[in-house]
Structure formats: structure tokens, C-alpha cells
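Last lecture ended with a question: if I hand you only a sequence, what can you say about the shape of the protein? Today we answer it with a concrete record. The protein is Cytochrome P450. Below, first the input exactly as provided, then the predicted structure, then a couple of comments.
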Amino acid sequence: MTAESTDTAGRTDTAGRAERTFPLPVPDPLEPAPAYAELRATEPVAPVTLPTGHRAWLVTRYEHVRQVLADPRFSKAALTEPDAPRLLPVAKGSKSLFTMDPPEHTRLRKLVARAFTARHIERMRPHVKEITDRLLDGMAADGAPADLIAHLAQPLPITVICELLGVPLADQDRFRVWSDVMLSVSAHSPDAVMEARRGLNGYLGELIAAKAKEPADDLLTHLIEAREEDGDRLSEEELLAFGHTLLVAGYHATTGELVGALITLLREPDLWARLVADRSLVPGAVEELLRFSVAGGGAGAMRIATEDVELGGATIRKGDAVLPAITSANRDEQVFAAAERVDLERESNPHLTFGHGLHHCLGAQLGRMELQLALEGLLDRFPGLRLAVPTDELTWVSGMAFRRPARLPVAW
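The predicted structure:
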């Protein structure tokens, strides 16, 4: 197919098709790239050029995205090979759950999964509600207009993650700055990203050593002490990598999803009014808002084919990079009726925002809980909440792996 000149990288693939650049152009930051709908209809597995100059196959239909996420022929571990294509322009770091295949992935996930059982996460609910209420108290005291990102969407997830790991309150800003820089696509230089990685690794290494000497009642201590019947336990490298994983998934992703959910609700006041009138809709609304989200940039979804695979009319060769577009899959009209409309009472909602298969997000229940409590807190405290500026006046953060505005001013 021939793409518009603004979408192409000036290359053609072996079939003579114009090759697009990824990320695809997004005229409206509140919506997915318009090209996704076109690709789903005409070229569901399409060649693209990544910001690093590497090439990949972009997969846009739900059925194919779901297959890539679960098919063992598409490897995460192969992304750590020195010559593997990569999406982010930085050197590779430690192995983590994000970049493992079985049996390594199975072993590590088994060791850490006990900290993320539904029962354990539910026991955290009262404390996460306390954090949420405290943040909303501060927002109310400061008065309108207020920045929802600074008052809630950013501090809530980072506070929860830091408390989970046992990071002292005084160090949370350092933690946040390091992780912000590490998630850069183009906002910071590769040297700055690596410097942030070194800073975070050094800090986590000291924290691990301190908790090994003086155990505490936190996740990091539990992970240090976690072992299987055969004596297997996490190495320091694995503990460091898991700390990175929590920051990316537990902080950045949750902040992005919460900001996106609030913008979606507040730019359509009728949606907000329905939740104000009926709190029972909140759990289902969270699922629909997760489906509708455009926050994720796909950085954690890429895989490498370990053998030739036929997919969606394309032949993916061994060693090729494959990028499943979860945002596109979640808007697939073949799976979601009226996919471009927010339906707070959608009955069937098998969205892929938390992934699928072996790499389904370990902290999905924690993320859901944080979104639910944030929404319930805002609905209770600020039923008249509204955007303080038109959405076209929002300034969006550029060059980062997760899409969100720099500020989200609201009034009530």
C-alpha cells in the first residue's frame, strides 16, 4: 500500500509497499493514530521503521495482536541480544520479567507472584485509600484551579510503589526523576538515560543491602527472603531488574492510564455525571477507560520472531521484530461494538491493556484498584469536577514512552 508522505520513512519493503515510521503520526493526542484504522482494514501486519532506525512489523488487528502476545514463537528474551532491534534508543539494561521467556520467566514470576495475589492486593486497599484521601485533602486545601497530575495522578502511583518497595518518603522525588528520564524515547540523550539507570541501580543496590541486614515489612524484603522449596531465590541482579519493572508498570503506566481516564471522562461531562449518579458503574468504567486508553507507547510489547511465521498475510522471518499495537487492538471494530465510543456499561470487554498470555501484567489488580479508588475519591469529594482549560490548550509531554499532558488543570 502507499502511505501519505508524512507517514513514510522513504523506504519500501520487499513487496514494494511504502514503509511508515513508528510511532505513527498522532494529530490528536487524545486519540489513537488515524492510520491504525486504515491498517486494520487493509494491511494488518505492516512494515515500519522504529526511532532507532531498526525495522519491525506493526500488528494492528485484535486477533493478531493477541496471538503475538501469547505465541512462544515471538520471544521477549531475544530482545536482549546485542544485535537485536530495539524501540528505545538506549543500551539494554538488566534482564527482567519484561525480557524473559520460559523457563527463566516462569521461575522469576513464581517467586514474585505471591506478593501480587488478589488477596494480598485487596488487603492493601484501605492503605491506598488513605493515600488517595490525603492527596485529595491537599488538592482541596490548595483550591481551584488545581493540577490533577501534580496532586493525584503522579504522586498516587509513585507513593504506592515506593511504599511497596520500602523506599523512604524523603527519597521518592529522586526515584521519580530517575524513572522519568529512563522512560525517554527522545526527550533525553542516551547518556542521560544511562546515567539515570546507574543512579537508580546504585540506590536500589544500597536499599537491598540495608534490608538484607535489617528486614522490614515491605515487598523488597519479602522478595529478598523469597525462596522455593529447592532453595532457589532471587539474585541481586534480578531484584534490581524487578525494581525497574515496578517503576515502569506501577508508576508510569498507572499515571498515564489515570490521566487518560480523567481526560476522557471530563471532556464528555455526561460520562462524569453518570458516575456521580451511580457509583456501581465505577469498576466497569475502569475497564472501559483502560480499553479506550492511548497512554501506552508499546515499548514493552515488542518481540522477536524465533522462526518464520505467517501472520495476517505477511511472512515474518526469523529474527524480525514484531510490534503488537495494543491501542489499535483495543479499538478493533470486529471485537468491540461501537469501538470508538466510551460505553460505561460495556458487557464484554476483553481489552489487552494489561497484555495477554505469559506476560499479562503482574500488577494488573493493583493498577485497577488505584484507578477505582482515585475515581471514587474524586467523585465523592469533587462531584462538580470539570476541566479548567479546553483540551486543545493542554501541553503534551513529548519524547516519552507514555503519552500524557504536562499539566491537567481542573476546577469544581
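Comments.
1. The chain has 15 helices and twelve strands.
2. The first strand starts at residue 8 and ends at 12.
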